Amino acid sequence: MLIKILIGGLLIFMVFNLFRAMKIMLQAEQPKENMSKFIGRRVLASAAIVFLILIAVALGWIQPNPRPY
Fold it and tell me: Which residues cross the membrane (predicted)?
């Protein structure tokens, strides 16, 4: 259950950074922060999610769905 909560938190973190980058992109004046910082955090969170899922399946903490055929 902890793995699922952690993955859900990382997904929320990804969406939050996506909207922060969008906010900076849509500003008319020169932004104070760099948009690539938030996009980079989003990519890092994506990589962490994939790595966490692979480790959790390998260790048997989560079970993937059975094949449909």
Answer: 6-22, 43-62
